[in-house]
Specification:
With 960 residues, the chain is α/β, with parallel strands linked by helices. It contains 29 helices and 40 strands.
Length: 960
């Protein structure tokens, strides 16, 4: 909605003449911007339209009739101003400046930018001014190079001190790493306190490289694929394959070598050209020599079935170690990736026909013998919407089962359950970019600087412009450094904290009476519940001071508009649904839904977890969250799909399927792109279940730990080798485009699923993902009006009434919610302790999560040169006092153990951890965090409690 200001409030305009062309612009518009409006280009070096102008290089000077030339990038237009942009005197000034700058530049044949992308802006200006060589000018050198970063080269001698890198780091990414050091000629850009870039706090987002106009900051070649000029490469516009932010990027492809030369961000309403280290440098996993390229069938002599490598069997260094409790296998040797030499001899190569015929025969036989309950499938949020849709359609129409799930069960299932219950929709109610319109933002249970770094850059920008940030988490992650208020609560006490905040919002009269009366239900019951949580009681439970709880209530209740962004620190608890219920109530009672700068936003973890859920890759919903146990819904899908007898009951979730296998229920599984051996809790239990299956087919791009248990392995294509659509955390549906040809006989997932469907008797004949997309849209009201073609280069937000002319809906629920009565249903929650509490033997609370450089189970990122080089090993983060009490020192190898298993990894002493807590990332198979985690689940969302279990960390030699 566009609001027109009254005439008296309209911005004043000024009229200037630029090179004889009259232009009227709002007061405050710079000469540079006004000149662009009339088609006059003014050369710049230090200026970039994404940053605040500083006017340090003086290349953009123009003649305004004053005593000195004015820098066009900072000088505002004045009414009646006469501007000349290219007089001989002005041009001579630029020429002399160029000559002076060129005096210190490396020769073109030695310049890192000129010899790669060939877009050195200073060299281009020198060519235009015919400055070939600075004869007679004193040439300096010796400021040095810095090659410490694995993918970024620094050449201080090529630096012109334009500060574009500084502003890219500060103004855009909000990382505040780059500044200046030295004096006079020795002045140069510096990382932190003049540290080498590779050992500084730099997060290798590459924004400085994208901003640098010379060869001072450049990308290094990855895997010996040379970086060449864009004109010599093919540009493929796609979307990042990692987190749910869904950043738009361009892959510059070297067709001669069949490889990506480099990637760069491109404009899109959400990400606005920004990338993080994974998006800019983490694409080479697709070229790994460990790609699966041919179908594989397990050899007869490798039965009875079980894990094939010592690591996955739970053995270390070839020996099985047990602790004093029966059945608890211990130890995992250092590794990093599945040992192909150890595993592949247990499989033989097969043709596609043989492999798919075997899969069809075995799954059909198990279904015929055991019925729908004997079959289950795990899909993947890494796959496209079309592939997820076809996968769930295959399981539902051929095997008549709703036993279909994917990693949403391990990340935001409880959030979705609470959102459906409370507002009738599992999607976000506003975008991450809407933070710019918020007065106050709560970020809770999330570390967006690591997990959603581009989204976090918008949060940091908003704070610089006045948005208050309240950060609530057990860990003092880097987000806490950008927060106005940081509440470090005890793990598992979220309900008590938010009930305490709501208690104060109500006590202080900061609730929105009109919104509550007109747009919510059950407020009285909520108020009665939170009345039992005065800040003093909440403080006792949470460890957050009572006065800070009141401060949060005052900020939140006093905000004109507020958004809550949350992550898996909210959802991955046995009380995850209750946690999310509290957040929904927090927004609703203050009227912070349905207007700009307000709303609810669970930050999605994987690139297509929103889309995979939207299209029905979950056991309780058909596409578009239509209830699987609703007879009317089932009838509609039977008609749409041309079948009868669809499963009338909700299916089993990820953890329930594992339990069903052990109980003799599920006997055959189709696993597409999932690796539950590392991603699921209580790995020992998962190992036993996978070994118990009668038949398992794994479809993936690498030999994963889960694939060791497979009867058949099908080689799929990576994200980079196929077309399809993906839906990000903002509800933005975008197209991923094929960048590379697949290796060997690898095939796109949707093609494999269709081929198998045909062998199972289904009459499927899709020729392209676009045809699948059209079928999806026909059964998904939320995606109405979208088509594969009108997604364009930037994608579209849903819902969208007019995708030809509109980007889509940013803020939802401005008039009513998607519930049956249109109201927000307030659901009160009582605080409950975690299922497994610390004790004398296991006195620490373990929290698991992600690192910036890695993603999920590491099968992609640990095969990326840059990402693995920056973060190569597993660590346990521990408070200094906890380490000292155990006699442990930073950097030593320690043992972390729980009631379910133990791992060995490096200790990182960290002030970010609260006393009594520790943190382990779950990407590292050689120190698999999920050997330790508990498989207790939230009763509503059915999500495991990854964020809380009791552990001990001790020296390898003995037990503390």
């Amino acid at each position: 909605m566009t609001t027109t200001l009254p005439a008296m409030q309209q911005a004043a305009t000024v009229t200037a003449t630029i090179d004889g062309r009259e232009v009227s612009v709002p007061e405050g518009t710079t000469i540079y911007d006004a000149a662009k409006q009339v088609g006059v280009e003014i050369p710049v070096l230090c200026h970039d339209e994404r940053f605040d102008p500083v006017g340090v290089c003086r290349m953009c000077v123009v003649d305004t009739g004053g005593r000195a030339f004015a820098a066009a990038c900072v000088r505002p237009c004045e009414d009646g101003m006469q501007v000349q942009t290219a007089t001989p005197e002005v041009q001579r000034s630029r020429e002399v400046l160029t000559e002076l700058l060129m005096a210190d530049q490396p020769a073109p044949e030695q310049d890192r930018k000129h010899t790669t992308t060939r877009d050195n802006l200073l060299f281009d200006l020198a060519e235009g001014f015919h400055v070939v060589d600075a004869d007679g000018m004193p040439r300096g050198s010796g400021r040095g190079t810095d090659l410490s970063n694995p993918v970024i080269a620094v050449d201080h001698d090529a630096c012109i001190l334009c500060d574009r890198c500084v502003r890219a780091c500060d103004d855009v990414q909000g990382n505040d790493v780059i500044g200046r050091s030295g004096k006079g000629y020795a002045t140069r850009i510096a990382f932190d306190l003049n540290d080498p870039m590779g050992s500084s706090s730099c997060v290798t987002c590459g924004e400085c490289v994208a901003a640098c106009p010379t060869g001072a900051l450049t990308n290094k070649a990855i895997n010996n694929i040379p970086i060449r000029p864009r004109a010599e490469l093919e540009q493929v516009e796609s979307v990042c394959p990692y987190c749910g932010v869904g950043c738009a990027l361009t892959y510059n492809v070297d067709r001669e070598r069949g490889a990506i030369s480099f990637a760069e961000g491109r404009d899109q309403p959400g990400s606005q050209g920004r990338l993080c280290v994974k998006g800019r440098y983490g694409w080479d996993y697709a070229a790994s020599p460990q790609r699966l390229t041919v179908p594989l069938i397990r050899r007869e002599e490798s039965y009875p079935k079980g894990a094939l490598s010592a690591d996955v069997r739970g053995e270390g260094n070839g020996k099985r170690r047990k602790d004093d409790r029966p059945g608890k296998d211990r130890g995992r040797k250092p590794g990093g990736l599945v040992d192909y030499d150890e595993v592949l001899p247990h499989f033989r190569e097969a043709t596609w026909d043989e492999a798919l015929d075997l899969v069809a025969r075995r799954l059909s036989g198990i279904h015929a013998d055991g019925g729908p309950g004997a079959i289950a499938g795990f899909g993947s949020a890494k796959c496209s919407n079309e592939e997820a849709y076809l996968f769930q359609k295959l399981l539902r129409t051929r095997f008549r089962t709703n036993n279909i799930d994917h990693c949403t069960r391990l990340c935001h299932a409880s959030s979705v359950a609470a959102l459906f219950e409370g507002i009738g929709s599992g999607a976000v109610s506003t975008t991450y970019g809407d933070v710019v319109n918020a007065d106050v933002v709560i970020i809770t249970g999330s570390n967006p600087t690591a997990n959603h770094p581009v989204a976090s850059s918008f949060f940091k920008q908003a704070r610089r412009k006045g948005t208050k940030i309240i950060y609530i988490d057990p860990r003092a992650s880097t987000v806490s450094e950008h927060a106005d208020v940081f509440c470090q609560l005890k793990p598992g006490t979220d309900v008590a904290f938010y009930n305490g905040v709501m208690h104060e919002v109500i006590r202080l009269g900061l609730f929105d009476r009109e919104f509550i009366a007109n747009r919510t239900s059950n407020y009285d019951e909520l108020a009665r519940t939170v009345a039992d949580y005065p800040p003093e009681r909440a403080a006792q439970i949470t460890g957050v001071p009572a006065e800070q709880i009141t401060e949060v209530a005052k900020l939140w209740g006093g905000a004109g508009a507020g958004i809550i962004y949350w992550g898996m620190g909210i959802s991955q608890h046995t009380t995850g649904t209750d946690n999310a219920r509290c957040l929904i109530a927090m927004c609703a009672i203050t009227g912070n839904v349905g207007k700009p700068g307000s709303g609810l936003h669970p930050l999605r973890g994987q690139n297509n977890v929103q889309g995979a859920s939207d299209v029905g890759l979950i056991p309780m919903f058909y596409p578009d969250y239509q209830k699987a146990d609703d007879p009317g819904v089932r009838e509609r899908f039977e008609q749409a799909w041309g079948v009868t007898g669809l499963d009338p009951d909700r299916g089993l979730t990820v953890t329930e399927i594992i339990g069903s296998i052990l109980a003799g229920g599920v006997r055959g599984m189709y696993m597409l792109g999932e690796n539950p051996f590392l991603s699921d809790p209580n790995i020992n239990k998962v190992r036993k279940a996978l070994s118990t299956l009668d038949f398992l087919v794994v479809q993936d791009i690498f030999l994963t730990e889960t694939a060791e248990f497979a009867d058949v392995i099908l080689p799929a294509t990576s994200y980079l080798e196929k077309d399809g659509s993906y839906t990000n955390t903002d509800r933005r549906v975008q197209r991923g485009r094929k960048v590379l040809d697949p290796p060997g006989q690898a095939r796109a997932d949707w093609e494999i699923v269709q081929d198998l469907a045909q062998r199972l008797g289904l009459d499927w004949h899709y020729a392209h993902p676009g045809e699948v997309f059209d079928e999806m849209v026909a059964v998904m009201p939320s995606y109405a009006n979208l088509s594969y073609d009108n997604l364009g280069l930037s994608g579209k937000l849903y819902p969208n009434d007019d995708p030809e002319h509109s980007d889509g809906t940013v803020v939802m629920f401005d008039e009513s919610f998607n519930t049956d009565d249109g109201l927000a249903h307030l659901v009160p929650a009582e605080w409950l302790p975690a299922k497994e509490l610390p004790d004398a033997e296991f006195p620490l609370v373990l929290n698991t999560g992600r690192l910036l450089e890695h993603w999920h189970t590491g099968s992609m990122t640990r095969r990326s040169y840059a990402l693995d080089a920056i973060s190569p090993e597993a660590e346990v983060y521990m408070h200094p006092k906890d380490a000292a009490d155990r006699g442990l020192t930073h950097g030593e190898i320690v043992r972390a153990r729980s009631r379910r298993g133990e791992i060995e990894l490096k200790l990182r002493v960290s002030h970010r951890e609260a006393l009594g807590n520790c943190f382990i990332a779950f990407h590292f198979r050689e120190a698999a965090a999920n050997l330790l985690t508990i498989d207790e689940i939230d009763p509503t969302g059915k999500i495991p409690e990854f964020k809380f279990c009791a552990v001990q960390v001790e020296a390898i030699g003995g037990r503390a």
